[in-house]
Amino acid sequence: MDPEYFKSYDMCWGTLGTVRPFSNFHPENDVSDIQAALEKKDAVTLVSILTNRNNAQRQVIDRAFEEMTHKDLASAVKKALAGDLEVLLLELLMSPQQFEAHRLQQAMAGLGTDEETLMEILCTRSGKQLQEISATYKQLYKKDLEKELKGETSGDFAKLVVALLNKEDVAGVVQRDIESLSASINGKKADAGPWIDILTSRDSDHLNKVLMGLELEIGQMVDEVVEKRFSGDIRLGLKVLVQCIQSPDVYLAKRLSTMKTSLVQGIMVSHSEEDLLCIRVAYLKLTGTSLYTALQKQFKGEHLQALLAICRSED
Question: Looking at per-residue confidence, does 189 or 8 come out higher?
Fold first, then answer.
């Protein structure tokens, strides 16, 4: 464990992230070390620096590299490295908004759409964060995110993703919301409308009370009801949304347990400065194995070392 990690002058013990500001931060020194490492294709040094700086510090390094070398750091990393490690370090060099915009774009690129990744990002980000991601998406891809989402989805699922993208907390009455959701599943065909309206426009405390109240009223777990009464993309969407309301850490731990490289990197980079400690706890409880150990069974080399550095420690 890096002793500097514990000495960070502005490290806040209230944070639930694993990557924190590096206390003895000298961007010019980092740039010199990175430049030498890139020339030698020294992945160990690159991993050591880029996983031990928080995102704000990596952005400073990125700008300083361009000023000092007149070269683009991301392009230099692409030339020096390859494979999953190259992808991971490039992801670390993006700002949080750029990275989420990139993940959304990738989820919609090519044939077919990765609906669950769209839902993961839309459900685990606040309305304010999503506005920033939308603005960054437009800047990066010269396209409107809402229009892109509408073009890639259809029916009730399209309504759900658009409502999530534009979510804002509106005051509601718990009992009235419970009654609306209960009524929506009593007919011959379940009506997704109230689920979309309510679950995308209330704060999490309110929604937890609503879901608990609904379970008491109908005598069934909400995810079981969604599984039985809905079908297709809207069923997937509502299941993810319900899980993220009830316990986002458990949902993300389940996603990590697939050990798919893109998912592991996506979630770990995304949540490294916010709540990866909580996700680690949920992962251990869910699988009986710590995330740190699970990574060692699945990955290798410098790519593994980079992931372990982001994960930080054994639970």
Answer: 189
